[in-house]
Fold:
Amino acid sequence: MVVAKSPRSGQVKTRLCPPLSPLDAAGLHHAFLRDTTARVCGLADVRVVLAYAPPEDRELFAEVSEGAVLLPQSDGDLGERLSAMFESLYARGFRRIVALGADTPTLPLAFVHRAFALLDLPDVGAVLGPAEDGGYYLIGLRGPQPHVFHGIPWSTGRVFAETKQRAEDTGLGVACLPPWWDVDTFADLGRLVEALRADAAIAHHTRSVLTEQRLL
Structure:
């Protein structure tokens, strides 16, 4: 499940502004979404779901869905929305669910494969991919676990640690993936540029936008 916001100017990637304009930041966010969705849609034996917000932008997400199932996000804070997403997919019959954000266009697909493999283990009920900023870039569960989402201090450096503790306190076996990074700040963007220069085979939409913006 790719969790995504609509690329509306002034509402996404605002920490990149300045030096980017709100319009350029939105264009970059759109490219991240397209690259992330396209990459995970290439995974074998995985059904991809694009969980999008706001619901009225369904047409935009349909254009970039790459055949993924479209799931509108519910109202509420991030924890409430994530909890509802997992509950909805579980009700549809999914039993191993991995969610990731749309702002990690260089995330190794091996990490996603590893998350599903870990969820096959009988003593693992949750998988977390810690982000370098203290959040997480991926969470995998074998079913709805609302307690791991409620009361979390979102948008702080304590998200990963408190989520992991919450899961362990309720008896879920937790496995962790290697740390990774997402693109929130201009320093992150510089790191992304270096990654794209080192590997010409990834993130084609992002590469195109960065080239147009004279950043690559």
